[in-house]
């Protein structure tokens, strides 16, 4: 795992740490900062917690064709616009938000996500709970991203050229 994290830092210029900094620490710091910025984006009513009103605003904002659900292309389009630094994980986040894996994010999916984020089960998603949850999700997605890239690299590496004289 440590090896993967170090590799991620090498692969992404934006993640490169100053020479004296531990790459793993730098990675963790970076992910936490992204989770914090996600909270700011998702706390639509700016009250310091992720609440049901935020879920409604999120759904309405992302549901461009107003059919009551967020389709994959709507999610990726909106997400790329609002969180360009996280565009690389938008596909994975859609799967995370689509709790019942129906390819539509509905209010029921968002309620299920909300309950997963409510780590201490008090019915409220505090700033810290949201960030803790998202830090975990973003870390996993970053690792999957690297594995997928390695898989593609392996698949794309062409066989050694045959020499014909
Ligand atoms: Ca809020
Ligand atoms: Ca829609
Ligand atoms: Ca809670």
TrEMBL record:
Q: Where is the EF-hand domain?
A: 105-140
Gene3D superfamilies, per database record = EF-hand
What's the short name of a Pfam family annotated to this entry? EF-hand_7
How far does the signal peptide extend, from start to end residue? 1-16
Q: Where is coiled-coil annotated?
A: none
Q: The organism sits in which domain of life?
A: Eukaryota
Q: Which UniProt keywords apply?
A: Calcium, Signal
> What's the protein name?
EF-hand domain-containing protein
Q: What species is this protein from?
A: Batillaria attramentaria
């Amino acid at each position: 795992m440590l090896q993967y994290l170090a590799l991620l830092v090498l692969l992404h210029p934006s993640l490169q740490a100053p020479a004296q900094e531990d790459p793993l620490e730098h990675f963790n710091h970076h992910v936490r900062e992204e989770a914090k910025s996600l909270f700011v984006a998702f706390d639509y009513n700016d009250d310091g917690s992720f609440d049901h009103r935020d879920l409604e605003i999120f759904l309405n904002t992302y549901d461009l064709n107003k059919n009551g659900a967020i389709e994959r292309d709507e999610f990726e389009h909106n997400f790329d616009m609002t969180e360009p630094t996280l565009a690389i994980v938008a596909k994975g986040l859609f799967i995370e938000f689509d709790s019942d894996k129906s390819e539509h994010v509905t209010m029921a999916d968002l309620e299920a996500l909300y309950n997963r984020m409510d780590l201490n089960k008090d019915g409220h998603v505090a700033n810290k709970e949201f960030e803790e949850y998202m830090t975990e999700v973003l870390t996993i997605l970053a690792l999957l991203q690297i594995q997928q890239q390695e898989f593609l690299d392996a698949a794309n590496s062409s066989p050694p050229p045959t020499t014909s004289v």
